[in-house]
Amino acid sequence: MTDQSRIDTSVAHPARRYDYLLGGKDNFEADRQSAHEIEKRHPTARLSAMENRAFMHRAVRYMAGQGIRQFLDIGTGIPTSPNTHEIAQGADPSARVVYVDNDPLVLVHARALLTGTPAGRTTYIEADLRDPRQILADQEVKNTLDLHEPVGLLLISVLHFIRDDDDPARILNTLLDAIPAGSVVVASQATPEHMPAEQIAALRKVMERQWRDRTGAEFRALFDRPDVELVEPGVQSVARWWADEASQPRPSIESVAANGLVARIVR
Ligand SMILES: C[S@@+](CC[C@H](N)C(=O)[O-])C[C@H]1O[C@@H](n2cnc3c(N)ncnc32)[C@H](O)[C@@H]1O
Predict the structure, then answer these.
(1) Residue 126 belongs to domain with CATH number
(2) 118 within a domain of the structure (yes/no)
(3) pLDDT tens digits, residue range 169-217?
(4) What is the pLDDT of residues 116-138, one digit of tens each?
(5) pLDDT of 208
(6) Whose CA is nearest to atom 14 of ligand 1?
(7) Structural domain of residue 172, as residue ranges?
(8) For residue 11, which phi and psi values (nearest 5 degrees)?
(9) Is residue 214 domain-resident?
(10) Count: domains in the chain
(11) How far away, in angstroms, is 156 Cα from ligand 1 center?
């Protein structure tokens, strides 16, 4: 099967819908309709997507500042510049990045992800976060990342596509067990906390079966391990992380409705 023939344009896909919300062109009618349905229930959905993306940019700069030189970015999305490798290799051209996504459309656009510096290495694999062992066993991952050295693990706006019956704790434990002390994990997750009950109920109705928003406490609980040390102030709105470096004025946490978490692996 070709990459193109595996792409079903009649059903909305998170990567393409997110691309549309970010102002991209790699989306189809079903994705746009789905985005409009979401916007009817969450009118600041575009702002939320952009704030999430900006959080990711600041997070990669932070990780690079902490000396991280290799990154595993799971739930990459359709390429939107700047991507993780552009920021990481901007800080150090020898930085290495592996992107992972389970949407075949991302693979079609992977060339745009693979334009890294000659000194560094940038690669892409199609794989599912729900099968973390497959990600870790992948030859590209092995060739690109040295799992004895600190890794920057990015799980940006992807954990809300992992339902409880996918056992997110198992997924995270597998990934966190595989990376050494000194690694930094950055994650973001949609939260229902700032929405009235009717709004969140209406929003859940139009999301995929896979959708699982989580409160800050539920999000925090996924990382509840003795070797995970949260960077202060712990779970907080993505809009508030490194707010001084962000565009001003900062939007309200209600309008963004997504939490971010930054953690160090300490052993
Ligand atoms: C909202 S986008 C976020 C993209 C990017 N991380 C960012 O924040 O800009 C979510 C991405 O996660 C991907 N995704 C969803 N479930 C996944 C899974 N089980 N395994 C791998 N990728 C997944 C989607 O295909 C989509 O590209």
Answers:
(1) 3.40.50.150
(2) yes
(3) 999 999 999 999 999 999 999 999 999 999 999 999 999 889 999 999 9
(4) 899 999 999 999 999 999 999 99
(5) 84
(6) 75
(7) 52-194+210-265
(8) -120, 140
(9) yes
(10) 1
(11) 8
